[in-house]
Amino acid sequence: MRLKKELSPSQKKIYDYLKERAQQGKTPPTVREIAAAVGSPGPSSVQYQLVSLEKKGFLKRSPLHSRSMEVIGLPPIARQAPIVGRVRAGLPNAAEEEIVGHFPIPDFFKEKDCFVLEVKGDSMTGAGIQAGDYVVVERRSEAANGELVVALIGEEATLKRLRKSGGKVALEAANPKYTDIEPEQLQILGKVVGLFRTL
Amino acid sequence: MRLKKELSPSQKKIYDYLKERAQQGKTPPTVREIAAAVGSPGPSSVQYQLVSLEKKGFLKRSPLHSRSMEVIGLPPIARQAPIVGRVRAGLPNAAEEEIVGHFPIPDFFKEKDCFVLEVKGDSMTGAGIQAGDYVVVERRSEAANGELVVALIGEEATLKRLRKSGGKVALEAANPKYTDIEPEQLQILGKVVGLFRTL
DNA sequence: GCTAGTATTGAACTAATGTTTACATTTGTC
DNA sequence: GACAAATGTAAACATTAGTTCAATACTAGC
User: Fold this and answer.
1) A187-198 and B59-61 as β-strands: parallel, antiparallel, unpaired?
2) Which domains can be identified in chain B, with CATH numbers?
3) Strand extents, DSSP E, chain A
4) In contact, B16 and B58? CB cutoff 8 Å
5) What is the C-alpha separation between B129 and B127, in angstroms, rounded?
6) What is the model's pLDDT at position B169?
7) CA A49 to C1' C7, whole Å
8) Interchain pair A194, B197: CB under 8 A
9) Residue A170: what pLDDT?
10) Which pLDDT tens digit goes with each residue over A12-42?
């Protein structure tokens, strides 16, 4: 997009202001707020330019509605998944988990119901997951053989690989230090779909 | 936060509606829009509840301004960094890169000027970075010994580990398949600070 | 210099929006 | 059942905000 060439200085000023507001997540401004921001004494000049900007395709507005302007071409807002500090037993949808923060997740996961966990131990280093990593977990109660899952064993949430063979179900660590677990009762909280690491 | 206990049904309806709008990135609604959404025939009932919600500390509003309500306690908007498809030579701040998308990045990087690259080759598998990963890169023109950097060699952007010994500078792959490079001209575009992988 | 298109300004107008008031209805409590 | 508090409704009011209009300056091209 080669904006600068097509926009007059005052149009660019207005456009940049709108973009800034949008990226900060604030409400779109009123015409008079824009006027104040760009140093125009009245709303009419801004109004004129807004029409121009809309004609050129940089804005979308609906007439007769307050603050109803939208900059075209900005990335949509990122969804945030809760970082749960401690996963509780019980309903997987319960809002009663300990939410210690929020983590933005990419569009791939748009439709999925996800939460984020900080990895504590070193039991999955063999799968490329280290302590301190954040894993994105899709909530589901079942998983296929070989998938990385977050499972609840007793009161503890653990990150393991699921192994199904015959009627048996096992949770396998990816670190030889740990031995496999074959729990009597297994509640799967979700499947690991993403991984974020700070370097 | 134990909302349900403290909010009447209609208050919760309004609160949820406001939260939904906010999380979708839309503009806050007008009192009458809320009324329509929750099935109230007029604006005054909603007005009454908005005052209650504000008293209870769930909202912040500034009177006499349209659409000026803000749900308290929502996570701030996530910053998005551009995914650059091809890094060009020249100014590191140039807006003329090929932006192929946007990627949300966590708060840690709030202040930094970042961009995101999709990893192409397998030259860094030894450092736990695979093809298909997305790396978050902080723009800077210098880096210390041992840091992972994105550097420009000729026209090509590559992901390597920087080695400085004496007066010499080398770019080291983390895969024995590749040999080190000691370029005559080295332009560092940034330092790798984060990594995202889809599993 | 002249003209056409563009940009700015100030004032006024109208629709939209927040607010208030008074009254009806529900809900909970004794 | 009676009362009080909370809630829902309806209509009017006041302010804000989007829009229009006429007048004026500014610029580019001839």
Assistant:
1) unpaired
2) 3-71 (1.10.10.10), 79-196 (2.10.109.10)
3) 59-61, 69-71, 79-86, 98-105, 114-118, 134-139, 148-153, 156-165, 168-172, 187-198
4) no
5) 6
6) 87
7) 9
8) yes
9) 87
10) 999 999 999 998 889 999 999 999 999 998 8
B56 residue type, one letter: K
Residue A93 CA and nucleotide C19 C1' are separated, in Å, by 40
Strands (E), A97-198: 98-105, 114-118, 134-139, 148-153, 156-165, 168-172, 187-198
In this structure, the dihedral spanned by the alpha carbons of residues B154, B156, B158 and B161, taken in order and rounded to 10 degrees, is 0
Quick count: other Cβ atoms within 10 Å of Cβ A8? 10
Higher pLDDT, A99 or A14: A14
Out of B195, B197, B199, the one facing A199 most closely (by C-beta) is B195
How far apart CA A15 and CA A12 sit, in angstroms, is 5
Find out whether A95 and A103 touch, Cβ atoms under 8 Å.
Answer: no
Which of B152, B177, B172, B174 has the alpha carbon at shortest distance from B162? B172
| Half-sphere exposure for A47 (CA within 13 Å, toward CB) | 8
pTM of this prediction? 0.82
Phi and psi at A16, nearest 5°, equal: -65, -40
**Residue A86, beta-bridge partner list:** A98
Residue A7 in tokens: 């926009």
